[in-house]
Batch of 2 targets.
Target 1
Amino acid sequence: MSSGAGILVIGSGMAGYTLLREIRKLDSDVALTLICADSGDFYSKPMLSNALAANKTAEQLVTQPAAAITDSLNVKLFAHTRIEGIDSTARQVFSADQSWSYDALVLATGANPIRLPMAGDGADDMLSVNHLDDYRRFRQQLGNAGHVAIIGPGLIGCEFANDLVASGTQVSIIGPDAWPISTLLPEAGGRFLQQRLEAAGVTFFLGNSVESVNRATNGFDVALKNGDTLPCDLVLSAIGLRADSSLAESAGLDTGRGYRVDAYLQTNRDGIYALGDCAEVNGFNLPFIMPIMFAARALAKTLSGQASAVSYPAMPVAIKTPACPLVVAPPATHESNAWRVETSPFGVKALCYRDESLVGFALAGDAVSEKQALTRTLPAVF
Amino acid sequence: MKQWQCIVCGFIYDEAEGLPDEGIAPGTAWDDIPDDWLCPDCGVTKSDFEMVEI
């Protein structure tokens, strides 16, 4: 913290902006620079998957334009600028035609949708929505679409399915899983969600997969593994996210599921930190809002001269499927856990135990009312 | 009685209902919630990301 170059943040998502706000609360003088590949306008990514039913345009999702935040926080902004490399010895980052010095560098580059290779002349037309610009394209192409096919019955796929049917669009959702959101929900919870979404108008094709996507006279033909063909107007790919750790190589940064950082959010290189969806913190890549908040507050203290390790309490995740309220607190590991499940016509309460201790839960329907009480009994993540 | 929505995660605070689980009684106005309160769903602070009236 000596050259005066200050703190350089790459990425203007929730992680980058939260960190900048938290640093400014502690230090009104340190030089702050933000470099981002997009416009830098602030929006909430979780809102992308429930903005249709609320009839929000991409513009309406921007809660603060970049200039307004960077002015109020006294941050120097370089928007529409893609960083291509890091020189960790010289403490510089560079784009194709410019370079910047830093005392501390924070990588907050988020994650990108996973795209699997797909056959068919319509494969490249599949959309993924993980960014405001994606959402803008999605809205444009959605137009008056009557039927959307979603590949991937996970958290994001189910949220979009709910949002689309709530705004009057027919939805088919396809995946090899035996029940929706199978990575976070035990079977009873997944089945309950499936029934609620089916009642809302979603059609599931589970234990199935997409073989090809081809252009048709109107829209697309989606060919399924079981031989069925689904005609639809738009295909959404929602099979998951992968941390963007594309700057690792140039700086020799360790990666796992994201840039590997310790509890101080520090990578294996002095002065380089990572935060948010792009980071694997103490072995955990948790691409949700709450971990970002805890990590950003700790890192802001560290960068302001008061070394602070982040600790993650139990952080339940609310899944935005209004047809079926859902809250999950996944266990930290999947080994030797046992689920105990209570079902009623109105909800599912699934508790996950290891050695007689509660280590996670999944609540669906009216059982979500027990979230606070159960959260208090969960162990911290670390 | 008003409702307020977190601009980050969509959580809705209903003044009429309060958040009894967190010790916030039904009928508590948004202005009377402590400044160190965090959104129960996403953990953002009351001051950083304003709730909006809906």
Target 2
Amino acid sequence: MYLIKKKRVLHDSIFLMDIVAPRVAKYCQPGQFVIVRIDEMGERVPLTVCDYNREEGTVTIVVQTIGASTLRMKELNEGEYLHDFVGPLGQPSELITDDIEEVKKKKILFVAGGLGTAPVYPQVKWLHEHGIDADVIVGAKNKDLVILEEEMKAVAGNLYITTDDGSYVRKGLVTEVIADLVEKEGKKYDLCVSIGPMIMMKFCTLTTKKYNIPTIVSMNPIMVDGTGMCGACRLTVGDEVKFACIDGPEFDGFKVNFDEAMERMKLYRTEEGRAMLKLKEGDTHHGGCGHCDGGDK
Amino acid sequence: MAAPGFERVPISEQEASVRAKNFDEVCLGYTEEEAVLEASRCLNCKNPRCVQGCPVNIDIPGFIMALKEQNFKGAYDKISESSALPAVCGRVCPQETQCEALCIRGVKGDAVSIGKLERYTADRAREEGIKPHTDCAPNGHKIAVIGSGPAGLTCAGDLARLGYDVTIFEALHEAGGVLTYGIPEFRLPKDTVVAAEIENVKALGVKIETNVVIGKSVTIDELMEDEGFEAVFIGSGAGLPMFMKIPGENAKGVFSANEYLTRNNLMKAFREDSDTPIFRPAKVAVVGGGNVAMDAARTALRLGAEVTIVYRRSEAELPARVEEVHHAKEEGIKFELLTNPVEILEDDDHNVRAMKCIRMELGEPDASGRRRPVPVEGSEFELETNAVIMALGTSPNPLIASTTEGLDTNKWKCIVASEENGQTSKEGVFAGGDAVTGAATVILAMGAGKAAAKGIDEYIKSKN
Ligand SMILES: Cc1cc2nc3c(=O)[nH]c(=O)nc-3n(C[C@H](O)[C@H](O)[C@H](O)COP(=O)(O)OP(=O)(O)OC[C@H]3O[C@@H](n4cnc5c(N)ncnc54)[C@H](O)[C@@H]3O)c2cc1C
Ligand SMILES: Cc1cc2nc3c(=O)[nH]c(=O)nc-3n(C[C@H](O)[C@H](O)[C@H](O)COP(=O)(O)OP(=O)(O)OC[C@H]3O[C@@H](n4cnc5c(N)ncnc54)[C@H](O)[C@@H]3O)c2cc1C
Ligand code: SF4
Ligand code: SF4
Ligand code: FES
């Protein structure tokens, strides 16, 4: 059992939790993920490591309510427990494992869509702590769905926020911001890291390709075990089949077959709907999750 | 009931048409009377050949004689001396090629039903609350065991009996390995049988820490250097699924048997109250011919599908246990033998629509001694289906080998370890089970766990 040490509601469909999990906290790195199960009948839910405190043995997760398990997770409070919490899984971000002197030479742009802000944060923070200030674009559906703004501001070089409906800072898609930065402001980037709904990452790579900016994306396909045992998470990258949980979750965005990956995500959509109806009716879906065609398109 | 003779006492099973719709156990087991009668068929051989066929050397005549005398505790104690998982082995061991293959009774008539009697003894002990002995004095030496499948559980149990302080580290949220995530409920009930036998191993003093992926959460070197473990046993199995690398394999509705079975068994997707979904189409094709293929097919059938098994060789070569093939057929599963998939066809929404197959014929024997299947030119046809489950075999996960300094593997990614004592290329590190042999059987994994426990004991004694 894993103690929920802290809980913070960021939006009615998004919450943050600090979980006591010393083994995970000891070795986890930005880019990696954990798998959580709330109780005996809960699903194994993969969630990105959003922060960690090695001294206190805690790991921070940020969760968006999608279906039965994440909705039930939202009902849990500080002092209560998660049944299972395993990790760190997947490969750390290449920025962290590459030679730091090489990374320092690069001008890096992060593009976060919706909840993608949460997994982008630890990478930007890590770079900041190593003397590298990266530019960050955050896109959300509306003002309410802009999360972790203060935290991000503290560690980013320049922070550019945009909303689909124009309810905050500016109106428009993240891809328009990339185009503006490169074309109007004459910015040059050597690397882009894009994390968010698959549809956003797809369009993001189409844009960065135009400007020849190599782009890393973080894939979040359906998973079961997260250790390479089931193949549910397989993706086509270049002409190879990769397992996102062991080879990724980060891949070269120019090589990922997004259309296939998005199709595969839809497999349990009807089942998913059923599980959710069992629990609660009403609109809990706010886009930005990669499960729908809406969101930050 | 007739006097014991050349034929074994028949065992009752759920009716095929009934069991095809539920996940309850197929085989109902012997009654006391039946078990005692079957036990009386054993000749209590002076030189019991059956024991040589058991990889953990259970004193077979010993336990059967106790059973014959209705001394159930005595029978259980005899088995427990050698095996920590008798209720499991009695159900899933390939007895017909192990102990029973060598039984003298089998020369003329049926071999004694050793497996079924073992099962009866273990079930009876569980129902009566009889536990294995736990009279070991702690010796203070810490040993880590990786993986809680049959190899790990056996190694841990044997070491605990010798007084070692043993911790099992398991990647999944539940212990048991394939017994928990792979083999379905209708062959091996989870709560009653598997969980109970794992509890027995814990009762010997073994600790099980779940949710720890060795190589990710912590490495073997860290366990030995930072956490004070003096030796490590690797029983991490062969969990990596294979695919065919044919076109269409990433369509919606193509699964590895591991994924499909894990959703159903570990995550309990067949139950209403589980959050985990499972795909339930009208038609399912399963590719492969082993136990895994039979289990996937029979699971799909119980989830309401019309199921076809597609296997590239002929019936004689089916690697699954005869009993499983027989059960599958009885339940109405169709077999397309001498048939191989060449492509998976999708509809406009990328759902599986059909599988293009080619007929095969048997040619010259290959390296395995079996006749090699070769495609019959121009014999392609479409098999209509909404899902394809690939049950082609598995290989060891390279995670542990790639994160442990100095641990050798062979070209199949299997860890190299001595058959006699489990010793690997790295000092203090032992291995056994599917991680070493590639996918094999429960009882061979247990045999390897046992050998390694002995190896570890000798290693620790030699150092102190
Ligand atoms: C590497 C990785 C990192 C992730 N990081 C985060 C994060 O930091 N925060 C966050 O809120 N979400 C994250 N997700 C997505 C999150 O795991 C899903 O939203 C969650 O599994 C939905 O579960 P549910 O039970 O609430 O929904 P359900 O009602 O169960 O609906 C989801 C169903 O569809 C399937 N499914 C669909 N999409 C996914 C998916 N992406 N992963 C697993 N199963 C899926 C599942 O089998 C499930 O049954 C991540 C996913 C991956 C793979
Ligand atoms: C569907 C199916 C049906 C079968 N039917 C039969 C049958 O009828 N009869 C028979 O005799 N055999 C059968 N087998 C084969 C048999 O189950 C295996 O040979 C046996 O379980 C191998 O035991 P093991 O202990 O070596 O590995 P496993 O049972 O595979 O256990 C390995 C354990 O290690 C864990 N692990 C892996 N990596 C790590 C890590 N890095 N850190 C921590 N833990 C880790 C895994 O999660 C797993 O729990 C079947 C197999 C399958 C898949
Ligand atoms: S464990 Fe298997 S091989 Fe040994 S006696 Fe029992 S059924 Fe036979
Ligand atoms: S070989 Fe057969 S008859 Fe002889 S002891 Fe073993 S089980 Fe009994
Ligand atoms: S989640 Fe099972 S192999 Fe990746």
